[in-house]
Amino acid sequence: MSGFALPSATLLAQSILSGIFTGALYGLLGLGLSLSWGLLRQINLAHFAFAFLAAYLCYQLAVLGVDPLLSLALIVPAFFALGAALHAAMARFSITPLNSLLLTFGLTGIVEAVIQAIWTADFRKLESAYGAHRFKIAGLFLPVPELITLLVAVVLSFGTWAVLHYTDFGKTLRASAEDAPIARAFGINQGRNAWLLAGTCSALAAVAGVCLALSFTLAPSQIYAWIGVVFAAVMLGGPGRALAPLAAGVVIGVSEAVTMAVTAPSWAPLVSFTLLIAILLLRPGRVA
Amino acid sequence: MSEGRTTSGPVADHAVAADAISAARRLPHAPIAIVGAAAVLAFLPALGLPAFYDSLLYLILSWIVLATSWNIFSGYAGYFSFGHGAFFGTGLYTSATLMARFDWPFLWTLPAAAACACLLGVALGAVVFRVKGIRGEVFALLTLAVTFVLGTIVGNTPLDGGSGVSLASVPIPRIGPTPPATFYLLALAAATLALLLSWRIAVSRLGAGLFAIHDDEDAAEVMGVPTFRYKLAALAISCALAGLAGGIHALFLNYVTVGEVFTIAVPLTVVLMSVLGGTRHWAGPAVGAVIITLLLYSFTAADLAVAGKAAVGVILIAAILFMPDGILPRAQRVFPRGKRPPLARAAVASEAPRTPAPAATVARGDVLLRARGVAKSFRGVRALAGVDIDVRRGEILGLLGPNGSGKSTFINLVSGRLVPTAGSIVFEGRELTRCAAYRIARAGVARTYQIPRPFRHFSVLDNVALAAMFGGGGAAEPAAARRDAMTWLAFTGLQDKAHAQPDELNLHQRKFLELARVLAARPRLVMLDEVLCGLTASEMDDAVALVRRIRDQGATVIFVEHVLHAVMAVTDRVVVLDYGVLLAAGPAAEVMRRPEVITAYLGQPYLPGHPPDTELAERPGA
Q1: Is the pLDDT at B33 greater than 70, yes or no?
Q2: Predicted-complex ipTM score
Q3: Separation in Å, CA A277 to CA A82, B126, B271
Q4: Which of residues 202-261 of A touch B (CB under 8 A)?
């Protein structure tokens, strides 16, 4: 069993660093989920399925010789449309938040089946020009794909935050989330706002998926592996806040990585979910 | 008599489960059907079908137990849990550990499995239910998190050790002719137990309370439902059944691993089954379980597992879009049976003309409720700053004051919705300030809400019956409560709407429904919060007459109102609050002439030199 062994300083630093990288991906995956939950009142489980679908598309394009970052130009608009269409369907049937959870779970199952039918259940790994490169600074390894993920997560989180706080579009979104009928009375076009936001959330899922493809091996069953921990990050930060998923994601990522270094990798889930349970019990008003 | 049912739209049929209150009378068939079906199915192994049928049937029954157990708490009370895997897994590992390490015989491990899962559920509930605001998505994800934490712990300790537990050497008891038949018979017994419990709860007081919690937990508590205890009881039963299913499944699997148990798959499957079948009916989850299990199986058997996954997804989406209430309620709408018993009509004919007997002999004059130094602050905002109010038995006391003066806070404090920062409230010699709201309701205190808060999925009759069941009168059993309720509906003139849904009532009728609910609780103190607000002049006259009749049949009334002519007409005495302090008390006609009261309502009289906009202006913050 796992004895407690104090790791060396370098190992600890490397763990923290890899925790930050993993946390950035948690944050990136959580960003769209958080926006859709907090601002649209829809819990989109299919977010993860969309991310994986985007990852597989990116993989397929890479096999055909398209650079992963270049493939974003194709993938992002496609997923924007997909998200907007899904939202239109949910709005048409006026789905409650809980039913949105169940409905998007059904959708996840369908997407998983489609992925499995096309790419099989085997593991796939994207081979790109970035994968091989890594910097070494002060004895610490900095792999390029992870650096890209971190950069993208930071830029998108701060970008979203700026849009929400400094543009009219962002302000109307926040106003609608706080009190929809009043916002409507002030002339905010909520229908248009909602599909724009839903599209954006899917596009964010797609970007997260491409980053996922850069550093991780893909398998259809892996869709479910991310749900728990990313939800933990979203709830830890409080849904609907742009910077919160990244911050909470990094906190979880680092605490997981340190736990793995100090005890055994299999104990890692304990940290994130204990954190989540604690925050829910101590500050339930913070979410939903 | 035109039944609400024939005229009602889709909402009316939401009431299937709420009407379970009445089901107790007309459905003694249900337990007979359950036991009868079980008895017939018990002979199946004797036919000597191929073993694989026994296994398939075992799986169906096992899912019936799991889905039904989930529904008993989560479906009835509306607390959607994604943690059913944790309780199932607890039972499974309890049983596996006892068999593999301690050589317990299989059957003896089953009660232990149920007990451990039950204990986990009660411990979880005892913590979570004390935190206000943990409902809906938050509760769902919290329970999911518990599943992963538990799974991690089990996987990393000797309970599992990360490699799984093998039960190959554990002997299988010879209950059936073959091992698969044994598992089938055990699961059949468990499913019978689960369905009987689910039915029994749906038609009992516990069920009525849980359905009320589903619709409006605060209102249920204030009407006398012991919400904490009821939720805990339902969760305990739900977890024990899940643990039992887990215990049986341990030996069925023969080889147990964490990765297949403590996952999101178990809870999502049971939620799917329950939602598909209908969460407000005792048999709904079982219907869903049969459909989903057969479907998944037929795809696996045909080597189309991938297509099966997609098909389940499509079915789930279609079910939510087109049957948000589930298959059973939908089916009942399409094939209505003679559902409405003649009970309601009979009750109207025989009992409506009779005025209900007074709840207690009216001895006017002595103090019924004594509030002393009652104060309440909300994070620095002082809503009440130490008020003394006496309410005398048999009077109608007007409680007046501008908006924000603390009237509603006072009602919330007396009803136990809020706990005062300081002071004491004594009702019939009993201190209320530390009492749970439901105990206050049972002691004989009832209130209405300014914006009516009927239970949405209950019929009008059942809304009132719930109050009769849990209020101070304690009409105990659902059937008796419904008869009482009919009387009070007649008293308030709503008898024709008995089977309508609250959504179909206009504001005036909803206000009267609030009054009927209050009356059905047989209270000695009634607090009416702006019952006249929003009514037309003639509706107001009806309401005022009704308030008088409420007092005449034995209750003391606290009447919060802004409509002054009604206050003048109906009250014996008024007290006026302003900024959380008592401004004046006495007969209405005298008090309303006092200058400080006029100032409180209308502002300072105009004086030359003051800025003109303060003239007749509402008080700031008013």
Answers
A1: yes
A2: 0.80
A3: 33, 14, 22
A4: 224, 227-228, 231-232, 235
